[in-house]
Specification:
The chain is mainly alpha-helical and 263 residues long. Helix content is 74%, strand content 0%. It has four domains: 92 residues, Helix Hairpins (Orthogonal Bundle), CATH 1.10.287; 34 residues; 64 residues, Orthogonal Bundle (Helix Hairpins); 48 residues, no CATH class. It starts with a helix and ends with a helix.
């Protein structure tokens, strides 16, 4: 058990929820696999609260995410695999191991030097786990765009990369033309594959620009929602809905909203 009363209280709540006799029927039947989607969802809700700069929500969402860690740890403990303390200790040990400049006599490092050293330690850890391949431990469960950026970043460390940004842009043009060709040919299976190639190059471009692709797309999603809501509001003042207007009318309102944002 933890030495922190609040953590102990949460661990006890989890134990009671999973109690075979008196626990919650839903909680008792959950497994690692069934809980995993909730874990991912809670991570996104943490990111959303940060993006909205809502500290009240962030505190609550961090609690929800912590509960996911407790839930998985409890399932593991019941199976005799590990418990919450093992998870916390493992994390503390890893951070100490990866920060010798803080926790040992290693010399002071700049942020860039620490990034290089961090990756070197991670490479050694992969070897210790028999995961020596460059791409072996890039999680499959990541959002596809994020994983694509991480895959290209990992490959770039060993020299498998376009030297310049312009070469990535040239590849983007090439993939766009290949996608167009398959669409024109009416081959949707090949078009789907070419679209994937195009998105992969876009993720590579984001890495080259030092931009998180998910962040960039999230911002555009928010912009789209904001502008479309402006269209709906403008039509509402006329007693109409988007379904009752033409594309030309909505496009004009969209451009008006766009110009207002730029003003």
């Amino acid at each position: 058990m933890s030495d922190t009363p609040a953590i102990n209280a949460l661990l006890e709540v989890m134990r009671r929820l999973r109690d075979p006799e008196t626990g919650c029927p839903w909680d008792k039947e959950q497994t690692f696999a069934t809980i995993a989607p909730y874990t991912v969802e809670e991570s996104y809700e943490v990111a959303d609260a940060i993006a909205r700069d809502d500290m009240r929500d962030l505190k609550e969402e961090l609690g929800d995410l912590l509960f996911q860690v407790v839930f998985h740890s409890r399932i593991a403990e019941e199976a005799g695999l590990f418990n919450f303390d093992d998870v916390a200790k493992g994390m503390a040990d890893k951070l100490i191991r990866r920060h010798p400049h803080v926790f040992s006599d290693a010399s002071h490092r700049t942020a860039d030097e620490q990034t290089v050293a961090w990756e070197a330690v991670k490479a050694e850890e992969r070897k210790a786990k028999d995961k020596g391949g460059i791409l072996d431990d890039v999680p499959i469960g990541l959002p596809a765009l994020t994983r694509a950026a991480k895959l290209t970043k990992r490959a770039a460390r060993v020299g498998f990369d376009w030297p310049t940004l312009n070469e990535v842009l040239d590849k983007l043009d090439e993939e766009t033309q290949e996608l167009k060709a398959e669409i024109d040919a009416g081959d949707m299976d090949k078009a789907r594959a070419e679209l994937g190639d195009l998105l992969f190059v876009m993720a590579n471009l984001a890495r080259k620009l030092d931009v998180e692709p998910e962040d960039a797309l999230r911002m555009t999603n928010a912009k789209f929602v904001r502008r479309f809501e402006t269209i709906e509001a403008a039509l509402k003042t006329q007693g109409r809905t988007p379904e009752q207007s033409s594309l030309a009318e909505m496009d004009a309102l969209w451009n008006a909203a766009k110009n207002t944002e730029k003003a």
